[in-house]
TrEMBL record:
Keywords: Membrane, Signal, Transmembrane, Transmembrane helix. This is B and T lymphocyte associated. It comes from Rousettus aegyptiacus. It comes from the Eukaryota. GO terms for molecular function: signaling receptor activity. The chain crosses the membrane at residues 167-191. GO terms for biological process: immune response-regulating cell surface receptor signaling pathway. Residues 1-30 form the signal peptide. The keyword Manganese does not apply. Pfam families: I-set. GO terms for cellular component: plasma membrane. Residues 21-132 form the Ig-like domain.
């Protein structure tokens, strides 16, 4: 039994479709076509002054590791960090990814603020979520309070922090009108009750007149 050309073409097509997921998509240069990913969750931490701490920026990429940096948010800008023996970065290899670690050998009040990492990829610049550091110190009664930086004040809130506060404010606005609504409802009920009491004597008077 001879196989028709149409059946052969259909068989080849199914073979190609089956192999595509296993072969992957490759670009002209022979490299896998995909961008790097930064896996940083937005959160905040309290750190005691004088202790060591590290911020981690996990990076997943396909072929060559992208150029990744840490920066500190100030208003709408993210400023490059000045590294020293007290504050430096290093790469660490882990399962299926690399981690750029920002290491603080000794945390100071000036380290208060929000940090994020960014990577330069062929498609442009990708940025991670921010991590906010609050530097605290122990007092004599073993309690903690927030330290101010060397300028005598905390750094201005970042854009992300401002948006979060604005969202909280908008969500609380409807609650502000709730007491007014309850007060109006109570007044309405009291008026209805008072009007009902006024109608009862008038009904009694009408009955007496009829008699």
């Amino acid at each position: 039994m001879k196989t028709s050309p149409g059946m052969l073409g259909t068989g080849k097509l199914f073979s190609v479709l089956f192999l595509i997921p296993h072969l992957g998509i490759w670009n002209i240069d022979g490299e896998k076509s995909c961008d790097a990913q930064l896996y940083v969750k937005r959160h905040s931490v309290n750190i005691s002054a004088g202790t060591s701490y590290q911020l981690e920026c996990p990076v997943e990429y396909c072929t060559s590791r992208p150029n990744v940096t840490w920066c500190k948010l100030r208003g709408n800008s993210c400023l490059d960090l000045e590294y020293s023996h007290r504050k430096h970065i290093r790469w660490e290899s882990r399962k299926n990814m690399s981690v750029l670690i920002l290491y603080f050998d000794q945390v100071l009040a000036s380290d208060n603020g929000s940090y994020r990492c960014s990577a330069i990829v062929p498609s442009g610049l990708i940025e991670s979520h921010s991590i906010t550091i609050y530097v605290t110190e122990h007092t004599r009664n073993d309690s903690k309070h927030l330290l101010k930086n060397t300028t005598g004040a905390l750094e201005p809130p970042s854009k992300e922090q401002t948006e979060d506060r604005r969202w909280i404010l908008y969500s609380l606005l409807p609650l502000g009108g709730l007491p007014l609504l309850i007060t109006c409802f109570c007044l309405f009920c009291c008026l209805r009750k008072h009007q009902g009491k006024q109608k009862k004597p008038s009904d009694t008077e009408e009955k007496e007149i009829n008699l």
